[in-house]
Design a protein that fits this description.
The chain has 66 residues and is α+β, with helices and mostly antiparallel strands. The chain is built from 2 helices and 3 strands.
């Protein structure tokens, strides 16, 4: 599942862009921001979301286990 994927800190992914994106932290059970370079991550399989709302919506099952 996407919500259990890799953790991101600082800038991740190749490329020169600086997109604000979010990832789900299973330890803290919260969606956290990171900077995405624009290349090298998959929105379909990686723990990467465009907004906090999208992150919380996708990971609501994980959040309900708290």
């Amino acid at each position: 599942r996407r919500c259990y994927g890799k953790s991101f800190y600082g800038k991740e992914g190749a490329g020169h862009a600086s997109f604000n994106r979010f990832w789900y932290d299973t330890f803290e059970r919260d969606c956290k921001p990171f900077i995405y370079g624009g290349i090298g991550l998959s929105y379909e399989t990686d723990n990467i979301f465009n907004t906090t709302e999208e992150c919380y919506r996708a990971c609501k099952e994980v959040l309900s286990l708290t």
